């Protein structure tokens, strides 16, 4: 069984940008999103994945991910997935034995930047860099499947 353990944060400032070691562009879209789970397809450069994730609120949930052919992923996203798609640049920062993933969103979610850290154990401790702001792990608005339904650009309307 695959268990994802992560914490999500807003950013306190842009100081993280000087620490970025690599970045990758993602396009992802959802086939299904229900109160119990979500099914998404994600494309990154020359790879693609099908991902199934439980809709558990909090810092851990079930997650299963399978690589699929790129051409299939592109067709699934274009023909079968609900719009809008999620488009983002993911920046990676290795720090204090962990990897921080910072998602900078585009399209309907432009202006939103969220940092995530994945852990190996639920009670694992980690150091928060000075550029980390408020934790939003328990705020459903920041989950990608919800951003696909309720885009950041519409939050103040």
Automatic annotation (TrEMBL):
One Pfam family per UniProt: CYTH
Gene3D superfamilies hit by this protein: Hypothetical Protein Pfu-838710-001 (2.40.320.10)
Signal peptide limits: none
Catalytic residues of the enzyme: 30 (proton acceptor)
Residue ranges of every copy of the CYTH domain listed in the record: 2-149
InterPro entries: CYTH-like_dom_sf, CYTH_domain, NeuTTM/CthTTM-like
Protein name per its UniProtKB record: CYTH domain-containing protein
């Amino acid at each position: 069984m695959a268990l994802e353990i992560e914490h999500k944060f807003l950013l306190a400032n842009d100081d993280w940008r000087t620490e970025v070691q690599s970045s990758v562009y993602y396009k992802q879209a959802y086939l299904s999103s229900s109160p119990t789970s979500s099914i998404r397809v994600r494309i990154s450069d020359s790879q693609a994945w099908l991902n199934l994730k439980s809709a558990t609120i909090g810092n851990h949930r079930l997650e299963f991910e399978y690589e699929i052919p790129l051409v299939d992923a592109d067709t699934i996203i274009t023909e079968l997935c609900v719009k809008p798609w999620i488009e983002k640049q993911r920046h990676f920062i290795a720090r204090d034995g962990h990897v921080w993933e910072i998602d900078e969103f585009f399209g309907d979610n432009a202006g939103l930047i969220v940092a995530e850290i994945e852990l190996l154990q639920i009670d694992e401790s980690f150091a928060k860099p000075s550029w980390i702001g408020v934790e939003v792990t328990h705020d459903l608005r920041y989950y990608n499947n919800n951003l696909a339904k309720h885009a950041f650009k519409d939050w103040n309307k």
